[in-house]
Design goal:
Layout: E1 3-10, H1 16-26, H2 44-49, E2 56-63, E3 70-77, H3 85-93, E4 97-103, H4 110-121, E5 125-131, H5 140-151, E6 158-159, H6 168-178, E7 191-200, E8 204-213, E9 215-216, E10 221-224, E11 230-232, E12 235-239, E13 243-245, E14 249-250, E15 254-258, E16 272-275, E17 294-300, H7 306-319, E18 324-330, E19 334-341, H8 344-357, E20 362-364, E21 371-375, E22 385-388, E23 400-415, H9 419-428, E24 432-438, E25 443-451, H10 452-455, H11 459-466, E26 472-482, E27 485-492, E28 495-496, E29 502-505, H12 506-523, E30 531-537, E31 540-547, H13 563-583, H14 590-600
Parallel strand pairs: 1-3, 1-4, 4-5, 5-6
Antiparallel strand pairs: 2-3, 7-8, 7-16, 8-15, 9-14, 10-11, 10-16, 12-13, 12-15, 17-19, 17-20, 18-19, 21-22, 21-23, 23-25, 23-26, 24-25, 27-28, 27-29, 27-30, 30-31
Helix pairs in contact: 12-14
């Protein structure tokens, strides 16, 4: 079977999209007049930031220079950032081989390691490729040694420059020679894997699928294993890279199907498709469900735009079902939504897309993770653990029996010279040492258990700072552990501001709350009365700043005269401020709220 299914995996900025561009040129899949850099990255944000956010599939036709035969090459270009690892696992499940791309000047990085181990666990054929050999700082020999250390096997690496095209044809020839053809049988009952989907406003849900056994054709009734729902195939075809209509897809092929599905949430990634009248005994090995790890509140700056924000989030969720959302309210910010994301980059991209594509300015609250809380509160009813992803839902401190927070297994690769600073940072972030390993005479891999709450804010920036940009970082979810977590409440003039409450480890509550009170004092404009800015933990005030009253000069029009008149005016002003303090309320302007949340997020 002259079909090869393969993907490109690598750390961020190692040249995946550039190599994909080179393959598209070599195979003449895209005419030269239509070709542009990062061709497969169609989203404006992807092109602007120079990163891949969603995996892209493309079908290429290539005539081998070795045996003269024509091959169908199904390529999937994958993201490199840790937030989008679920996209990479989907891509790998639809392939038999993977090109492991490594930057010749940077060497093996954290995501290189993670992707390589995932590919090995799935039984994929790995083809190591060293890119950017045209750079003056390139060291392909040292990089090759690091690859051998990672793969535990001295495998030959192809040295290329995706930028100028050197070695790209050799990589395609290696794919043909080394990656096995699909093993499926077109005569068996239909069995196909769903590896991606997106929403089209005219056609409904468009499903990307890899046919493992059997055939698909328009008019055939198909059923999804996960929910048992059946649909009729209305349209199908291949991706070159645009949707090209076809009459059939058979075992080993990758393509798309349209079946009149209106709700993208009915489609589960990793699901198995079979023919309605020919059910299968067991599904194909799928993927773990995508579970958000970071939550944040999204509120419109203009409270009248709540309905528009709801529409915008629903539309975005049709194209990216990996984030979750539900409505919530805040006394300070009004009506909004609580969204769950795969990480901070994912959060930042969704926020930017809402602001750009729908023109809705947003206030985003401090991101936080999911805690498991055991409480005696009647609301919790039993002593079972309950998920809490919003500080507002954190139970009364007197009712809490135990709080568990999520930990991750973090892997950091860096030059040995920066290890002391990195170790100190990991200690500061409550890390637990697991292992240390040398992958060359100068580069080290350290593994730590870290609380997820410690890395979602400023960890990456601090890591780059202590390592002067040379450290790379990757993590995988691990387990929940009991921790001494407390809720810090911010009070203004005696009233709790729910949008500024946050959950933190007790050891850091004092320093973080003092810092927050100081920032609030700078940002809140003065009122006609004195304002107490306080931080409270478990009913006790642990930090306070006082914002002085704005002074109005009531003596401005007193020119001379008896001093008693001036004293009466001052006493009257003093009494007025006292009454105002008793009944007045403090308003935080929206721009101050936005500035405060940006500062607290380390921006």
């Amino acid at each position: 079977m002259n079909i090869r299914n393969f993907c490109i995996i690598a750390h961020i900025d190692h040249g995946k999209s550039t190599l994909a561009d080179r393959f598209l040129r070599l195979t003449e899949t895209v005419p030269d007049r239509q070709m542009k850099e990062q061709f497969l990255d169609g989203m404006e944000l992807e092109r602007e930031r120079g990163i891949t956010i969603k995996a892209k599939a493309v079908r290429m036709h290539y005539r081998s220079t070795t045996d003269g035969q024509e091959y169908i090459m199904n390529l999937i270009d994958t993201p490199g950032h840790v937030d989008f690892s679920y996209e990479v696992s989907r891509a790998m499940a639809a392939c038999e081989g993977a090109i492991l791309l490594v930057d010749a000047s940077q060497g093996v990085e954290a995501q290189t390691l993670a992707h390589a181990h995932l590919a090995q666990s799935l039984g994929l054929t790995i083809i190591p490729v060293i890119n950017k050999i045209d750079l003056a700082s390139a060291d392909p020999d040292a990089t090759e040694e690091q690859i051998w250390e990672v793969l535990r096997d001295p495998v030959d690496s192809t040295r290329i420059s995706a930028k100028d095209g050197r070695g790209a044809r050799e990589v395609l020839e290696r794919v043909i020679k080394e990656v096995p053809p699909p093993s499926g049988d077109p005569d068996r009952p239909l069995k196909a894997l769903v590896f991606d989907s997106f929403y089209d406003s005219y056609k409904g849900v468009i499903i990307y699928t890899r046919v493992v056994d059997g055939r698909m054709s328009p008019g055939k009734n198909i059923t999804f294993f996960s929910n048992g729902k059946s649909y009729k195939i209305e349209e199908m075809g291949t991706l070159s890279p645009k949707l090209i209509k076809g009459n059939s897809l058979q075992a080993g092929e990758v393509g798309y199907i349209v079946a009149g599905i209106k709700d993208i949430h009915e489609i589960k990634m990793g699901d198995t498709i079979f023919e309605k009248d020919k059910p299968v005994d067991a599904p194909l090995p799928g993927y773990q469900d995508v579970r958000p790890v970071v939550y944040a509140g999204f509120y419109p700056v203009n409270t009248t735009e709540y309905t528009q924000l709801k529409t915008a989030i629903e539309k975005l969720n049709l194209t990216d079902s990996s984030f979750t959302f539900q409505g919530e309210t805040s006394k300070a910010l009004g009506f909004g939504f609580r969204l769950g994301f795969m990480g901070l980059l994912h959060l930042d991209i969704i926020k930017e897309r809402i602001e750009r594509e729908f023109d809705i300015p947003l206030i985003v609250t401090n991101p936080n993770v999911i805690y498991k809380v055991k409480s005696r509160n009647k609301e919790f009813k039993t002593l079972d653990y309950r998920d809490v992803n919003n500080p507002a839902d954190f139970p009364y401190h007197g009712d809490i029996v135990d709080v568990m927070e999520p930990y991750v297994r973090a892997r950091i690769i860096a030059p040995q010279t920066y290890m002391e600073g990195i170790m100190n940072l990991l200690k500061e972030k409550r890390g637990e040492h697991l292992s240390i390993e040398y992958i060359s005479t100068t580069r080290v891999i350290v593994e730590y258990m870290l609380p997820l709450s410690e890395i979602i804010m400023d960890f990456y920036d601090k890591l780059k700072s202590v390592s002067k940009g040379y450290a790379s970082f990757d993590y995988t979810s691990s387990e929940y552990k009991s921790s001494d977590m407390v809720k810090v409440e911010i009070l203004l003039h005696g009233e709790t501001v729910d949008a500024l409450s946050y959950i933190v480890h007790r050891s850091k509550a004092l320093s973080s709350s003092r810092s927050l009170c100081e920032k609030l004092k700078q940002l809140i404009p003065k009122h006609m009365f004195e304002i107490a800015i306080q931080a409270q933990v478990n009913g006790r005030i642990i930090a306070r700043e006082t914002l002085g009253a704005q002074r109005k000069d009531v003596l401005a029009k007193c020119y001379g005269g008896d001093i008693t008149r001036k004293r009466k005016l001052l006493e009257k002003q003093k009494e007025g401020k006292r009454r105002m303090k008793l009944m007045g309320s403090v308003e935080i302007p929206q721009d101050a709220f936005m500035s405060l949340l940006k500062i607290s997020q380390g921006k």
